[in-house]
Amino acid sequence: MHLIADGSTAASRLVLVNELETDDGYAFELTSPLFLAVGDRVSFENSNLVVARANGERLRPASSWSTRCRIAYHRPATAS
Length: 80
Prior knowledge:
Number of strands: 6
Structural class: mainly beta
């Protein structure tokens, strides 16, 4: 599932999260899995994950950043 971590976009369904991956190859790995409930909002403050619950509670789960390396296979273009 694609989550938007802008602090204002709420989760649309119950989600079990164990890591968040950015579009530029970084991953935020949680120490233990976390359930996001409907209405929870995710953001990053000072490079730390913050979950704002619908009831106003704010969580800062233990986690760390890592880098992901990917080797992609690209097929050569074929002549038609």
